[in-house]
């Protein structure tokens, strides 16, 4: 068995037992003090691993949000399709009804009664795939809540005439009874 340096120094007479114990106590105190004052080592690998985990969690959250948004869009499209197909008004007629879709002039063939209903806001025109179909106004309002771009034509609520401003301007003037044209 190897003899420690301290034991060798004792045998040679350079150090006595009292001095050896004092030196060992001082060494223990210094090591304890050094351990207390030591700053914890920052492990770069652990930091990189934590950053990678945080980035992965953020990516996963973003992907989940995109998936749920896509699922909601598909569900809304299915609801719109179901609303249109269950409340479809068949078009049959020989009159052209003109409207605009994305700033492009379009027309559909409808009956006179359907033209009247379109103008009086009883029915509306909605887009299903690449077709234009007629649905009741309450259904078009439900469709507009889900996707406003699907509703192509709805008449205005207010019965506005082209001359309404002119009529208000001349309302103060009385028309004579004996006026002949």
Fold and architecture overview:
- With 181 residues, the protein is α+β, with helices and mostly antiparallel strands.
- It has a domain at 48-158.
- The protein has six helices and five strands, in the order H-H-H-E-E-H-E-E-H-E-H.
- The protein has helices spanning 5-12, 17-37, 44-86, 112-119, 137-146, 164-169, and strands spanning 95-101, 104-110, 123-128, 131-136, 151-153.
- The protein has a three-stranded antiparallel β-sheet with strand order 4-3-5. Strands 1-2 form a two-stranded antiparallel ribbon.
- Helix 3 packs antiparallel against helix 5.
- The longest helix has 43 residues, at 44-86.
Brief synopsis:
With 181 residues, this protein is an alpha+beta fold.
Q: What is the fold's blueprint, element by element?
A:
Elements: H1 5-12, H2 17-37, H3 44-86, E1 95-101, E2 104-110, H4 112-119, E3 123-128, E4 131-136, H5 137-146, E5 151-153, H6 164-169
Antiparallel strand pairs: 1-2, 3-4, 3-5
Helix pairs in contact: 3-5
């Amino acid at each position: 068995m190897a003899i420690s340096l301290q034991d060798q120094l004792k045998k040679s007479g350079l150090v006595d037992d009292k001095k050896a114990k004092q030196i060992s106590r001082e060494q223990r105190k210094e090591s304890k003090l050094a351990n207390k004052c030591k700053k914890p080592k920052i492990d770069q690998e652990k930091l990189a691993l934590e950053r990678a985990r945080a980035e992965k969690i953020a990516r996963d959250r973003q992907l989940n949000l995109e998936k749920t948004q896509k699922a909601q869009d598909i569900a809304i499209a299915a609801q719109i399709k179901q609303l249109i197909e269950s409340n479809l008004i068949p078009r049959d007629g020989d009159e052209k009804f003109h409207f605009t879709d994305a700033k492009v002039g379009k027309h559909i063939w409808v009956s006179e009664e359907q033209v009247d209903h379109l103008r009086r806001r009883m029915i509306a025109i909605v887009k299903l795939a690449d077709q234009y179909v007629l649905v009741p106004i309450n259904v078009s309002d439900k469709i507009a809540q889900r996707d406003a771009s699907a509703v192509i034509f709805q008449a205005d609520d207010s019965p506005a005439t082209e001359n309404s401003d002119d009529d208000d301007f001349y309302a103060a003037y009385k028309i004579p009874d004996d006026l002949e044209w």
